[in-house]
Amino acid sequence: MGPRIVLMNRHQTMIERLQAIVGATHVKNDVDSLANWACDASRQYAPAATAIVFPASTEEVQAIVKLANLEKIALVPSGGRTGLSAGAVAAHGEVVVSFDRMNKVLEFLPLDHMVRVQAGVLTGQLQQFAIEQGLYYPVNFASAGSSQIGGNIATNAGGIKVIRYGMTRDWVLGLTVVTGNGDILHLNKGMTKNATGYDLRHLFIGAEGTLGFITEAEIRLERQPRDLRVIVLGMSDFNSIMHVLAAFQARLDLTAFEFFSELALQCVIADGNVDRPFQDATPFYVLLEFEASSPAVEESAMQVFEACMEAGWVQNGVMSQSETQASQLWRLREDISATIAKFTPYKNDISVLITHVPAFITDIDAIVQANYPDFDIVWFGHIGDGNLHLNILKPSNLSKDEFYAKCQFVNRSVFEAVQKYDGSISAEHGVGMTKKPYLGFTRSKEEISYLQAIKQVFDPNNIINPGKIFDLP
Ligand SMILES: Cc1cc2nc3c(=O)[nH]c(=O)nc-3n(C[C@H](O)[C@H](O)[C@H](O)COP(=O)(O)OP(=O)(O)OC[C@H]3O[C@@H](n4cnc5c(N)ncnc54)[C@H](O)[C@@H]3O)c2cc1C
Predict the structure, then answer these.
(1) Domain ranges of the chain
(2) What would you measure as the largest C-alpha separation in the chain, in angstroms?
């Protein structure tokens, strides 16, 4: 565990010294602010921060880190706090460093298709900026309205367009960071080509804020997709999903291939804002999207659909004919997380190679049937990337603690299956604190030793986000 703040008079001095860096009004330690900024969307750990500090520049972040090293104060980087692994949670008296004030688009270079932003720019704000330039920022997911670019980079966020556009990592051309040592580094400076040794930028992507703070980023933008069509298909068994994926991928460049279960759909429909895609219910649904760049492409999609019906893989289907219809169909998938939140779901975010998905699902299904016969399980996820979200809903007769204890007991079996198929215990949500005990199911002992050694190079006093991803020996 990292450094703590213990003495009251030391605490007061610390607040005053933080205020001297960022200004008196940009440090908060009232009860409401502590509760608000010290947690994320995981809701598993009680927030217990000492203060929240809101820097406005890289230099202010650097001064905070230098102070923290001097006084041995643990700092937690905080973005939009939509994370699902407790990476941004301050549960041990840390000072939270929030990027809410660092929310500016700094520069746009049209020839490079590149934008430089501060870390606190919202994902949705960057998407909108790109549209205004006639371009596109493709990383997208349901929390894009609140998550920040800094948080997205720190978690290497994925989402609903990975099958075509990749993860956040694929869009980061450069980073400005303040290391745990208090050094400011400009990593890769936006270049597409740069063969000068280790690319440290990639260490900070997905590091969950354990090596230092991301303060600015150079982000690549893409041409806008045109004439997107959305198809929702109903199917009776999971294996059919993989056949349908192969069939569509053989003929079309898909921009999304998502799946969800009937229970997931029921949760969304129950909220009353969107209708069933077709009358008959089936155990599983797929939502796929492609650019209908010509009538021939649309015709191909129809041919594949008909072939899938004939093969018996698909029972029902509907294709959007307008942008409004497309966004209505997307809501069936995108509203799942928000609509199941009221059931305090225990979330697993696991991935394997697409090749292994059918066998892996059979194993997971057996584990779930044996261990959770009475629990409602909501399946959904980015199946086109081999990424499954397994959500177990809390029965109303169990307390949150009893429920989490049961889920954690079964985790071992789920993660043994992940390990068997050389998969990941966290495809995109990160390890944080919630998945820390299970890191060894995906990373070898030797690998974890290297991770720990890298942490000690960038953050020798274990100041930045201590106790996240792994503990130090
Ligand atoms: C409804 C919903 C749907 C979601 N769907 C997806 C999805 O499809 N795909 C996906 O990948 N994720 C998804 N998420 C998870 C979450 O939105 C992402 O992990 C997102 O990238 C977190 O960004 P944030 O700004 O909220 O980060 P936070 O939650 O604030 O922080 C996340 C991590 O990044 C660190 N961090 C934050 N800012 C910085 C910084 N400037 N410098 C260094 N470290 C920093 C924090 O310490 C923490 O470890 C979803 C979440 C919700 C609630």
Answers:
(1) 2-98, 105-223, 228-337, 344-429
(2) 75
The total of other beta-carbon atoms located within 10 Å of residue 449's CB is 13
Query: Whole-angstrom Cα distance, residue 223 to residue 135?
Result: 5
Q: What is the pLDDT of residues 118-131, one digit of tens each?
A: 999 999 999 999 99
Residues 6+ apart with CB under 8 A from 231: 286, 287, 288, 289, 301, 305, 317, 318, 319, 320
Residue ID of nearest Cα to ligand 1 atom 53: 82
CATH of 228-337, one of 3.30.160.20, 1.10.3720.10, 3.30.70.20, 3.30.70.2190: 3.30.70.2190
Pick the CATH number of 344-429 from 3.30.70.2740, 2.30.110.20, 3.30.70.20, 3.40.50.150: 3.30.70.2740
Residue 213 near ligand 1, beta carbon < 6 Å: yes
What is the distance in A from the centroid of ligand 1 to the CA of 61? 20
212-220 sheet: strands from edge to edge: 105-109, 114-118, 212-220, 172-179, 184-187
Amino acid residing at 139: V
Q: How far is the CA of 283 from the centre of ligand 1 (A)?
A: 30
- As its CATH architecture, domain 2-98 has 2-Layer Sandwich (3.30)
Contact (CB, 8 A) for 83 and 40: yes
CA 240 to ligand 1 centroid distance, Å: 32
- pLDDT digits over 356-380, tens only? 998 998 899 899 889 888 888 899 9
429 CB near ligand 1 (under 6 Å)? yes
Q: Is the pTM of this model over 0.85?
A: yes
**Mean pLDDT for the stretch of residues 345-363:** 92
